[in-house]
Amino acid sequence: MSNTISNPQDAEFSQRHFEANDEIDLRELFGVIWAGKALIISITLLFAVASVALALRMPNIYKSEALLAPAAEAQGGGLSALANQFGGLASLAGLNFGRSGSTDKTKLAIEVMKSRKFTSDFIGKHHILPELMAVDKWSLSDNKISYDPELYDINTKEWVRQVKPPLQATPSMQEAYKKFTKIFSVTGDKQSGLVTVSVEHKSPYVAKQWVDWLVSDINQVMKQRDVTEAKRSTEYLEKQIEQTNVADIRTVLYKLVEEQAKTIMFAEVRDEYIFKTVDPALVPEEKFKPKRALICVLGTLLGGMLAVFIVLVRYFVKKRN
């Protein structure tokens, strides 16, 4: 039977040997880094200068945002309650008011704002395609926007950019939508129910104006949707009233017609139909990005780590050869 128990003195000697090797390796590592300090300093300095130049070249981006609260009626009003009470007759009348747990108008409005159609209509209605796709910089002194001459000719109001097919000189709405989604945000707080709409732009005045337009347009769009639906429902209900002789059914149908009339009346007298403004958008005085100091620090650190890596790789390659 073989002896598997090691000598304690041999184990202690091996441990000291490994610790000595580790110490030698660390000394050797620091020695290599110290020997290549000139290269490390040069690369780090190069990255630091490049990061500073990049940070200075990046234009200021300003962010304007508005805080909105859902209108009380947007969570479902008397019409929904009546539909729950007379669900069968409401379905018979061709009306879909939604039930408990369904998407309310606030959530629907948020999704509409994110949709391609709403974005395309918004861009076309306010003629903001040049401000979205071709802005070069904004001047603080005279509050003027300058456009990239390689993209847009401000004198002739024509697009002059050079692109490959199937793209055209004038940006398509698909291109505009992709660009707009990068600078536009709408989020809802599940706990408070409040909604935040924000826009980022090189001009703080443009950012503020677009937020105001977005809030106004979504209220108008949702209002028009409900009014159109209410009018169609009213026409259908009136036909059903004419065709039935059952008193109870006629009573319920009249109540549904009354609720539709209330919907139309409410829409006509309220500008803030879906969202009420809690905190309106302001012209931001401070830039939102870029974080120039952070860019410079990260660029310098990246250069330093890369330089150390290059020095170590060169040393171990030479050592193996």
TrEMBL record:
Organism phylogeny: Bacteria, Pseudomonadati, Pseudomonadota, Gammaproteobacteria, Alteromonadales
Membrane-crossing residue ranges in chain numbering: 32-56, 293-317
Annotated Polysaccharide chain length determinant N-terminal domain residues: 22-123
Name this polypeptide is given: LPS O-antigen length regulator
UniProt-listed InterPro entries: Bact_polysacc_biosynth/exp, GNVR, LPS_length_determ_N
Originating species: Shewanella dokdonensis
Domain Tyrosine-protein kinase G-rich: 276-315
Pfam families, per database record: GNVR (PF13807), Wzz (PF02706)
Keyword Transcription: no
Keywords for the protein's UniProt record, in alphabetical order: Cell membrane, Membrane, Transmembrane, Transmembrane helix
Subcellular location as annotated: Cell membrane
Membrane topology of this protein: Multi-pass membrane protein
